[in-house]
Amino acid sequence: MGVEIRVEGLTKSFGRQVIWQDVSLTLPAGEISVMLGPSGTGKSVFLKTLVGLLKPDRGSVLIAGRDVTRLRERDLYEVRKLFGVLFQDGALFGSMSLYDNIAFPLREHTRKPESEIKRIVLEKMELVGLLGAEEKLPGEISGGMRKRAGLARALVLDPEIILFDEPDSGLDPVRVAYLNQLIVDLNAQIDATFLIVTHDIASARQVPDNIGLLFRRELVMFGPREKLLASDEPVVGQFLNGRMQGPIGMAEEKDAAQVEQELAELDAGNHRGPKGGKGASGAGVTPRLLPSDGIARSPRWQAIAQREARSHPHEVADA
């Protein structure tokens, strides 16, 4: 499972406001990618453009050989069947039980009998750790459980691409850690292509295969996690360390001379030169989060585990 998404020269604006321009990247099939960026840089707009909910001004989004930006509505509907989406708030119906919420896409988009729907719903609820909560209403459960219910609903049509729109929003650090482990475990089991939009730095360090960063209306970088974490690009280092010194300001506009002075002071304080150092990680590349014990690992995950064991023999993040 999992399909490649190839984005080429994508530009989007609302009126005179350019959101981002000339964005090009490839989301590898079956891998987990994360898109970072300060608030207001159009990360959620990017997700909606991938699904075809928004039309770009220019560029293409190629999925399974089809350009989403140029499809007729009927053909776009077929491509959207490849997607599952976890929205920020879970987007659950408050008057429906968790079971009925999760069953909703199956009842709306398939003609499966209720017996088959029940089998699928319970299977997905077990996958996200919600068995036993079928009759609960969204208002009766925690935010973390609502996220998991939203994820189960995103999974019921067996998507090959899963989009996560700020899944950590509204969750405390402990629930975020559990959700991150769940995402990694799911990827190891279903091997779909995952794209996560997040502000959470710990998640970006531990979870993905690939990281991208949107800033000042462009894609600053996109590539393998290790490359981004070791990057000397000032905005990447600033964001991944959550510090004030760097190009990102409260209004996202800092004077170039001010940025240069801040970075020079930061380098002096760290007793290192402006280049070389330890990159954006500040202390080497963070160990990768691996699937939980008992989760069968695909060849890709086996290779990742072996690489992590070599790189971090005493601190591999294996739950």
Structure summary:
With 319 residues, the protein is an alpha/beta fold.
Structure in words:
The protein is globular and about 65 Å long. The protein has about 325 residues and is α/β, with parallel strands linked by helices. Strands 6-7-8-3-9-10 form a six-stranded mixed sheet. Helix 11 (about 300-310) links the parallel strand 11 and strand 12 (about 315-319). Residues about 270-280 have low confidence and may be disordered. It has four domains: about 1-80 and about 160-225, P-loop containing nucleotide triphosphate hydrolases (Rossmann fold, 3-Layer(aba) Sandwich); about 95-155, no CATH class; about 230-280, no CATH class; about 290-319. The chain is about 40% helix and about 20% strand. InterPro entries: AAA+_ATPase, ABC_transporter-like_ATP-bd, ABC_transporter-like_CS, P-loop_NTPase. It comes from Actinacidiphila oryziradicis.
Task: Note the main attributes of this structure.
319 residues, alpha/beta, Rossmann fold, 4 domains, six-stranded mixed sheet, four-stranded antiparallel sheet
> Total strand count, please?
12
Q: In the CATH hierarchy, what is the class of the largest domain?
A: Alpha Beta
**Count of discrete domains:** 4
CATH topology of the largest domain: Rossmann fold
Average of pLDDT: 86
Low-confidence stretches: 271-278
